Amino acid sequence: MDKNTVIGFILIAAILFGFTFYQNRQARKAAEWQAQQDSIALAQRIMEVDTVEVIPAVPVVPAVQAVPQEKAIYKDDSLNSLHGGEGEIVTLENEKIVMALTSKGAQPYSVQVKDYRNYDSTDLYILKPDGSDYSVSVYAGEYIQTKDFNFVVAERTDSSVAFRLPFSGGGYIEQLYTIHKGEYRVDNVLSFNGMGNVIPRNVYSVDIDWQLTVPRMEKSYKNESQYSKLDFYQPGDKKPVEMGRGRSNSKNAASRVSWFAFQQQFFSAIMRSKNDFSSGKFAINFVDQDDDSRDLMVCNSEMRQEFTPGQTVALPFEFYFGPSDFKTLKSYDQKYEKIIPLGGSLVGWFTRFVIIPLFDWLSKFISSYGLIILIMTIIIKIVVLPFTYKSFASSAGMQALQPEIAKINARYPNQDDAMKKQQATMNLYKRAGISPMGGCLPTLLTFPILWAMFRFFPASIQLRQQPFLWADDLSAPDSIIEFGARIPLLGDHLSLFALLMAVTMWAYSKLMMNNQTAPNDPNAKSMQFMSVWMMPIMMFFVCNNLSSALSYYYLISQLISMLQIFLIKKFFVHPEKILEKVRATEGKPLPKSKWQQRLEEAQKLQQQQARNGRRR
């Protein structure tokens, strides 16, 4: 490298150094001037806020200025001035909910749902005052959490409020909440305005933490906790992931999450990211029944929301605070209705397209939900009557053929004649016109209906606090005796509907067993014990702590079934005619089905193999 080149590099370096020094000096002066202007603007905004009239829905916590700190916590003077202190309550209200928000953290303070009451007739809050802790964490030159700051109420209308957290270096964080007329929905936009120079370019996400303490709202803690849970839905899934149902739990979602729900038995607080959360962590912890707080559970979510860095960033969210009603949730077209436990594919389909429409249709004409359940049960029993008839006719026929089956067993006592005995038995069934599976398949086809009802009644908010006969709430157990202490398996009360249901199930099972298998069959003895005794006892212990509507449905279902069996037995099925038909066809050839042909071929093959074995 020659001398001239060296001198050239030195001159270029000197020019760059001088230019950089000059630019930094000018930038520092500009920042000082901007900080002075922002401080003046901040003081003006705070003075303007003091003149805003606020009508709270809950007891107001007086707004006071933040206590000056002896030592600065943050590098930003504006953050230090707004750190700490008490929040100001601002209320948004429509026909459905009353939502109170606090400027401390710019977060929901409480949400009351109108037209609904707690079991003790007090106001129903999904978010009770001070029961929610909602915060946004972001790195803006330093790590901050919004719950630590008293935001400024920048704008206020009847349906919206905007909270702002200004920075001395320019820009502000804004939380805008908008309530919609006649809806349980609240829109929320979290935005970072003019903060391109405050939030580093390599920061592309914020953390949103929400802890919600859900109070008890229903009569029965066990029933309420069993149907309360936390759900989160990931895009593309058929249904949300659920956790809870009376058991504390935690789960991580490493991939995208569209929304999550803190779900009490009949009411839900749902948060949805319109851009999807990038990941999340969830936890649910149930409060002990004897806790003095009267709380049900504590739900936690730790969500990460990614964004594209820029001078202004807006992140849209949506909240739902309202009843877990299938039609209402479905109207938002976000699969919110999937949080209602209606069963799997077959059972859920039957509930959505048969049970719910029928229930809603009857509700238009009948005000008593006990009568609605009765009429629904009668309609369903009429629909499945052909299956009931087929099942009972087959069972009665099998019972009538027991003497003939005993003759076949005596004719083929040896194990080597098992195929002959089976073939003779099948011929007997055919001459009688009875299918050995005729009693099982029709019964199996009615199981989805029974299971659909088992899922529908405890999850139906329409039954909540609806009285019928001695039950004051069809969605809760009908306690006729309170023990004052919890008894293992039984609970702390006695349900009359559950007791009557168990007695009726015992009578129905005994009636059916008398028309089925032979009394000397040891397998029949075991089956009879399970059906007549064990099932009613088990169902009593299960239903004693569940919805009284469910026990009531099973009760009247068994009674209607007994009436149907009585009528079928008296007027339609006559066992003596079955025996006459068998004796009339005795000795006559019968057409062979393909199954019988295969059975005979198998029998001949077995006999041939036996002869070959003896020859060897």
Short note summarizing the structure:
Helices cover 41% and strands 25% of the residues. It is elongated and about 115 Å long. About 7% of the residues have low confidence.
Q: Give the overall pLDDT as a whole number.
A: 80
**Major sheet:** 9 strands, antiparallel
Question: What is the CATH class of the largest domain?
Answer: Mainly Beta
Distance between the termini: 108 Å
How many E strands?
A: 21
Q: Low-confidence spans: pLDDT under 50, at least 5 residues? A: 26-69
What does this structure look like?
With 616 residues, the chain is an alpha+beta fold. The chain folds into 2 domains: 29-340, Beta-galactosidase, Chain A, domain 5 (Distorted Sandwich), CATH 2.70.98.90; 346-468 and 549-584, no CATH class. 41% of the residues lie in helices and 25% in strands. The chain is built from 15 helices and 21 strands. The chain has helices spanning 3-49, 77-82, 221-226, 326-330, 345-363, 369-383, 385-400, 402-411, 418-432, 441-459, 496-513, 522-543, 548-571, 575-584, 594-615, and strands spanning 89-93, 97-102, 107-117, 123-127, 132-139, 143-145, 152-156, 160-166, 172-179, 185-193, 205-215, 229-233, 241-244, 249-253, 257-263, 267-277, 279-286, 295-306, 312-323, 479-487, 491-495. Strands 7-8-9-10-19-16-15-12-13 form a 9-stranded antiparallel β-sheet. Strands 6-5-11-18-17-14 form a 6-stranded antiparallel β-sheet. A 4-stranded antiparallel β-sheet has the order 1-2-3-4, with no helix packed on it. A hairpin with a 4-residue loop joins β2 and β3 (107-117). α6 packs parallel to α13 (548-571), α7 (385-400) crosses α10 (441-459) and α8 (402-411) packs antiparallel against α9 (418-432). Mean pLDDT is 80; it is low at 26-69.
